[in-house]
């Protein structure tokens, strides 16, 4: 039995490795086609990316990426494609910022209140898509994309001087959170790491435990693998769809928190956007695995960080975007290849072992 | 290894039956002949010419066609559209194609209407469309994979009539089956496969089902017969006036279950006969709670469960062996031990207070694998890599492991080999002796008659007839299944005579063998032979899982 497990691990690592190697080969060709030296580019990336300040920057960047990937992965595990994490985290962060800016409570209450508001708003926003799917049969892909646009409009409406925001120079943003709402930092040099990285780790552990070790998680994964089998086994598929969307949205609510509670302390027009889509790529790259997605998030942060340095060296800055895109494509292809190969290998193994057993028993019969 | 040392010679213009247990490698062999899988060793000779088949396209080009066990038709298209789909180049898609379809249909007595919608057709009609599809593409050799699994006896006879028609026109039919009676009545030659290799050939006129079964399994033919009655007077399941309506695709509301009332006592097996699609699946789903009935009550052990959720019913002691194990009984890509948890996640030993107990589930899976003789190298392999019979044994083992009060067994031995069939029957009988109530739904009338204490016939959503399994014959049951007879089916002596004769088969058989010999002498040249022999060494890398029937 050990053999199968070992194969499983090897196959599990083979896919992302294969994807990254393939992506590097393809990008090398692209860089070479632009008339530059691809190997120098990789050298620059590694040198610059491994500097101390880069490391801190990468971890800080990876924290929201990871949370976003978790939110997407909850959906993926039950075959729901929540494209709306982007809209969910932004609208969640916006209302959390508005509530946080209006309250002045001691930090031990203020911070949880902000986080809970964010999770509730995120869950609510995602829940709309869940409700539409179960009651009207609307595909969650369509409804979450629409909700992204609606969410952006809602934020734009309230993010005006006199409504829920104030003007400061060219920027419009919600009122600053009181000092009590500042999340702790891990003092590292040259810059500190956001304390929210701890929350991200806890979220990852919770994700692993709930999905992998509880009845609820089993039910959720069952729906993801076969809705008909889940239905027959006694899982209410509709209720599960709504629950999963709520959980995914609540997780998405956390995505904006490292920025809100650790950097900007308000939600303004410059609040980072697009992390929800990055999360999809990272969830794919990390295979919905809690550790895999850590690696994916860090890799993404590393690529983001080194893109600026490549520009200094005369490379097109877009090259990193190309690498990221190519990685995602390679990942999808590589996983499918490895999955099919794994299934085939397993079936062959089962066949071989059974044939061996049969031969043995036949011999026993003959000799008996 | 799925196949090794296969030697098969099929004469032109004959029906050649290929029989063997499930998982014996019949389907793999057929896949090789149809170009879906490549052999590692060995040769295929067609009309004296050695051929290599790379894809089904190659096979079709050489005149080999396959009718799959599961029909491959688009429901929302017409027969004509289905037939020309993918073969538009042959005769276009219009009048010429229609004329060609008519011509083939008339030539072989298939009675196919080109403009009927496939969704309106019954199972037997669909099968004829599949056969026509293959003929339309110019096949001279037809492979039929378990064609009778979904048919009632009368339809089987009609199919055999079609096959004889094909044969008389000089076509060759390879007929895969593990129903021995059918094989003997229709085939000119029989080849038996066991454990991936051909173990013998037989001539139907000189062989009895018993001898054939011994060739197939190397042991005696199991019988579903139940000896002593264990029926008690304690009511376990009582269904009263159950009504369920469903909306069909045209928006018309139809009653799929109408006034269903039945009672199953402890220790009783109630068998439901019926042509598929007459409400049996809906009845099962209503009792399992997968569909909410709009009228009537369901009592389990005195408790009303008419509208209880499925999980509650499972916890209360309903075991479920679903009709379609791939869709309803298994997570194909999950390991066996996760499949052991499926459906019983809230029960011991799978979880404690909401948290899974993977270790206990694994240990218990190992016990099931051992006690129910699931042939697998371990419990970490995916369910998909097991053969159909072993998947079914795992499901039966899982459902029996929670001491059910009521077992719903829908086609429990469909697509299951003779050995596994006997084990599953034994397990049902044993549990029945210990007071289990069983609702048995099956298309295998011998199984129904053999296992049941009480028989009911379902037709168009109603229970139209009942019968005593001790005296009834499959033919009598068959006529009630088509709606021809209702009420209490009395066994008549007249019917028995026809039944004992086995219909017209003996006459047909003798005629066939004579015809077969004629063909053989006329065609006994290298040209008239189709020879397939494949050999694999021990390192042969054919996949076994794919070779197993569903």
Description of the structure:
Chain A is an all-alpha fold and 368 residues long. Chain A folds into two domains: 1-36 and 318-368; 57-314, ABC transporter involved in vitamin B12 uptake, BtuC. Chain A is 77% helix and 3% strand. Chain A has helices at 2-33, 38-49, 52-77, 85-102, 107-136, 140-158, 196-213, 215-225, 227-233, 237-255, 257-264, 275-285, 290-312, 318-367; strands at 166-168, 171-173, 185-186, 193-194. A two-stranded antiparallel sheet of chain A has the order 1-2. In chain A, strands 3-4 form a two-stranded antiparallel ribbon. In chain A, helix 2 (38-49) crosses helix 13 (290-312), helix 3 (52-77) packs antiparallel against helix 10 (237-255) and helix 4 packs parallel to helix 6 (140-158). The longest helix of chain A is centred in the C-terminal third of the chain and has 50 residues, at 318-367. Chain A is globular, with a radius of gyration of 24 Å. With 550 residues, chain B is of the alpha/beta class. Chain B has three domains: 6-63 and 140-223 and 505-547, 3-Layer(aba) Sandwich (Rossmann fold); 73-138, no CATH class; 235-452, P-loop containing nucleotide triphosphate hydrolases (Rossmann fold). Helices cover 35% and strands 23% of the residues of chain B. Chain B contains 20 helices and 23 strands. A seven-stranded mixed beta sheet of chain B has the order 15-18-19-12-20-21-22, sandwiched between helices. Chain B has a six-stranded mixed beta sheet with strand order 5-6-7-2-8-9, sandwiched between helices. Chain B is globular, with a radius of gyration of 24 Å. Chain B starts with 5 loop residues before the first strand and ends in a 16-residue tail after the last strand. Mean pLDDT of chain B is 77; it is low at 494-550. At the A-B interface, helix 1, helix 8, helix 9 and helix 14 of A face helix 11, helix 12 and strand 17 of B.
């Amino acid at each position: 039995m050990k053999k199968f497990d070992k194969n499983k691990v090897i196959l599990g690592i083979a896919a992302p490795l294969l994807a990254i190697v393939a992506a590097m080969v393809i990008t090398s060709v692209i860089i070479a086609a632009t008339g530059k030296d691809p190997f120098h580019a990789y050298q620059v990336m590694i040198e610059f990316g491994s500097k101390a300040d880069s490391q801190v920057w990468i971890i800080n960047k990876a924290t929201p990426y990871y949370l976003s990937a978790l939110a997407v992965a909850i959906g993926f595990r039950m075959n729901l494609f929540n494209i709306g994490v982007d809209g969910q985290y932004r609208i969640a962060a916006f209302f959390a910022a508005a509530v946080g800016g209006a309250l002045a409570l001691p930090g031990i209450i203020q911070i949880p209140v902000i986080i809970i508001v964010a999770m509730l708003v995120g869950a609510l926003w995602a829940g709309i898509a869940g409700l539409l799917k179960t009651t009207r049969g609307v595909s969650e892909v369509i409804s979450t994309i629409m909700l992204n646009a609606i969410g952006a409009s809602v934020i734009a409406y309230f993010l005006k001087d006199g409504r829920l925001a104030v003007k400061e120079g060219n920027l419009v943003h919600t009122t600053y959170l009181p000092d009590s709402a500042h999340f702790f930092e891990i003092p590292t040099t040259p810059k500190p790491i956001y304390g929210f990285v701890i929350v991200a780790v806890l979220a990852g552990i919770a994700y692993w435990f709930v999905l992998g070790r509880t009845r609820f998680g089993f039910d959720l994964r069952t729906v993801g693998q076969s809705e008909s089998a889940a239905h027959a086994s006694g899982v209410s598929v509709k209720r599960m769809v709504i629950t999963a969307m709520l959980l995914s949205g609540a997780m998405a609510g956390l995505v904006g928190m490292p920025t809100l509670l650790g950097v900007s302390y308000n939600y303004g027009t410059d609040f980072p956007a697009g992390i929800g889509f990055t999360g999809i790529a990272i969830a794919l790259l990390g295979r919905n695995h809690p550790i895999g997605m850590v690696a994916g998030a860090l890799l993404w942060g590393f690529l983001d960080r080194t893109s600026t340095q490549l520009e200094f060296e005369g490379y097109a800055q877009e090259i990193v975007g190309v690498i990221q895109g190519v990685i995602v494509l390679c990942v999808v292809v590589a996983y499918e290849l490895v999955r099919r190969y794994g299934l085939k290998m397993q079936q062959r193994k089962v066949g071989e072992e059974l044939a061996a057993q049969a031969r043995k028993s036949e011999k026993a019969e003959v000799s008996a | 290894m799925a196949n090794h040392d296969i030697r098969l010679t099929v004469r032109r213009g004959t029906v050649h039956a290929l029989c063997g247990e499930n998982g014996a490698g019949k389907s793999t062999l057929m896949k090789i002949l149809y170009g879906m899988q490549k052999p590692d060793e060995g040769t295929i000779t067609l009309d004296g010419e050695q051929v290599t088949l790379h894809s089904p396209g190659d096979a079709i080009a050489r005149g080999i066609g396959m009718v799959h066990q599961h029909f491959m038709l688009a429901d929302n298209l017409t027969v004509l559209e289905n037939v020309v789909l993918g073969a538009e180049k042959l005769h276009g898609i219009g009048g010429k194609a229609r004329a060609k379809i008519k011509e083939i249909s008339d030539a072989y007595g298939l009675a196919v209407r080109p403009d009927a919608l496939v969704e309106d057709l019954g199972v037997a009609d669909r099968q004829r469309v599949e056969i026509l599809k293959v003929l339309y593409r110019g096949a001279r050799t037809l492979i039929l994979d378990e064609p009778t699994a979904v048919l009632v006896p009368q339809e089987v006879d009609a199919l055999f009539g079609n096959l004889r028609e094909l044969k008389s026109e000089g076509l060759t039919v390879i007929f895969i089956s593990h129903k021995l009676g059918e094989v003997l009545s229709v085939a000119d030659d029989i080849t038996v496969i066991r454990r991936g290799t051909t173990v013998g050939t037989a001539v139907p006129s000189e062989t009895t089902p018993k001898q054939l079964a011994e060739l197939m399994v190397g042991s005696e033919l199991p019988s579903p017969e139940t000896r002593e009655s264990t029926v008690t007077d304690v009511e376990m399941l009582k269904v009263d006036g159950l009504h369920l309506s469903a909306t069909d695709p045209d928006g018309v509301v139809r009653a799929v279950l109408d006034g269903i009332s039945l009672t199953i006592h402890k220790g009783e097996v109630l068998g439901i006969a019926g042509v598929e699609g007459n409400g049996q699946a809906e009845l099962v789903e209503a009792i399992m709670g997968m569909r909410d009935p709009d009228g009537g009550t369901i009592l389990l052990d005195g408790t009303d469960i008419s509208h209880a959720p499925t999980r509650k019913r499972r916890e209360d002691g309903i075991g479920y062996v679903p009709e379609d194990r791939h869709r309803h009984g298994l997570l194909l890509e999950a390991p066996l031990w996760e499949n052991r948890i499926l459906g019983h996640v809230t029960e011991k030993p799978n979880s404690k207070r909401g948290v899974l107990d993977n270790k206990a589930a694994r240990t218990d899976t190992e016990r099931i694998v051992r006690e129910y003789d699931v042939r697998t190298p371990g419990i970490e392999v995916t369910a998909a890599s097991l053969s159909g019979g072993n998947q079914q044994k795992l499901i039966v083992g899982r459902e029996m492991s929670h001491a059910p009060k009521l077992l719903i067994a829908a086609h429990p031995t469909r697509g299951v080999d003779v050995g596994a069939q006997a084990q599953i029957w034994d397990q049902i009988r044993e549990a029945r002796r210990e007071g289990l109530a069983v609702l048995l739904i099956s298309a295998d009338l011998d199984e129904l008659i053999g296992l049941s204490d009480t028989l009911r016939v379902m037709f168009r959503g109603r229970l139209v007839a009942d019968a005593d399994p001790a005296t009834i014959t499959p033919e009598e049951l068959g006529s009630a299944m088509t709606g021809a007879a209702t009420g209490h089916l009395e066994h008549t002596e007249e019917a028995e005579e026809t039944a004992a004769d086995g219909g017209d088969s003996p006459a047909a058989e003798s005629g066939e063998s004579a015809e077969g010999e004629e063909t053989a002498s006329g065609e006994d040249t290298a040209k008239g032979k189709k020879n397939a022999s494949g050999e694999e060494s021990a390192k042969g890398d054919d996949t076994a899982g794919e070779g197993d029937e569903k």
